[in-house]
Amino acid sequence: MADRLPTGIASVDALLGGGLETDSVTEIYGEGGSGKTLFCLDVAARVARSGRWVFYVDTEGVSVDRLRAIAGEDLERLLKRVLVSTPKSLEEQGRAVATADALARDRKRPVGLIVVDSATFYYRLSLSGSDEDEARQALSLEVADLVVTALETPVPVVLTNQVWRNPREGTLEPLGGSFLNHAAKTILWFDRLPGPRRRAVLVKHRSLPEGAAEFRITSTGLEGPLPPDRSATSAPPARERT
Ligand code: GTP
Ligand code: MG
After folding, report:
1. Do the Cβ atoms of 144 and 12 come closer than 8 Å?
2. 38-47: per-residue pLDDT in tens?
3. 172: CB partners within 8 A, 6+ apart
4. How far apart are CA 121 and CA 178, in angstroms?
């Protein structure tokens, strides 16, 4: 069985059979405000607290306030271990990911996590332009490199992805096409429930059945206690929207 990196969110860890697989890419997609970035920050803080480094490619502007709320008094110490890169184009994103790959591979530092949040922000911007094919190719190459890095190092990779509404089916679909869908061995959909509640739906996994787990956003991060019967997983809800 692949090693796991616990996320620290009990319900999500139960859903994932212990946590994020360390030898593959995990994709999280969901609407704005579904908690993708908070999840990445939570796991990044946990990894940094354990003494390992995080390479965080941030295309949307990580909220330092949110990180401060998660990190508490540890903020300064954690920031020294979380290397944040803020690319301003898909090309710069590619270079940032190449740096992350190199850091994970040279093993001079104990890198414990690579995050790309969001992997598809600049890709989406390019979709309406004439360079659509180029953008698709650039994203595919970048993700392919991350797949190999995850496979050849003990470093898990988390990508976040945005959604589009499929007008014919009425469903929310992840961006990035079938390549991203195949490259990520674990795919989670974060669904918004009322208030601070969220649902993580396991859409794809190599060795686990589909399922879902609840968690909620709090002022200090994400929480997902196991229900009393400890069966955190349930049948996945339909992705349909009315
Ligand atoms: P995009 O990047 O826009 O796609 O969204 P995301 O999925 O990354 O969402 P993010 O992780 O940024 O989650 C933001 C959500 O957290 C919003 O719905 C906020 O209302 C909520 N939020 C932020 N701070 C708090 C807080 O202190 N308490 C609670 N309950 N919710 C909060
Ligand atoms: Mg976000």
Report:
1. no
2. 999 999 999 9
3. 30, 31, 163, 164, 165, 166, 189, 239, 241
4. 17
Q: Which residues contact 32 (CB under 8 A, 6 or more apart)?
A: 162
Structure tokens at 38: 């908070």
Is 2.40.50.1000 the CATH classification of the domain at 4-240?
no
Pocket flag, ligand 1, residue 32 (CB < 6 Å): yes
List the domain boundaries for the chain: 4-240
Ligand 1 atom 10, closest CA: 35
Distance of CA 26 to the CA centre of its chain: 6
Question: Is the C-beta atom of 33 inside 6 A of ligand 1?
Answer: yes
Strands 186-192 and 171-174: unpaired
- Could you report the per-residue pLDDT of 189-225, keeping only the tens digit for each? 999 999 999 999 999 999 999 999 999 999 999 999 8
H or E element: which one contains 198? strand 197-204
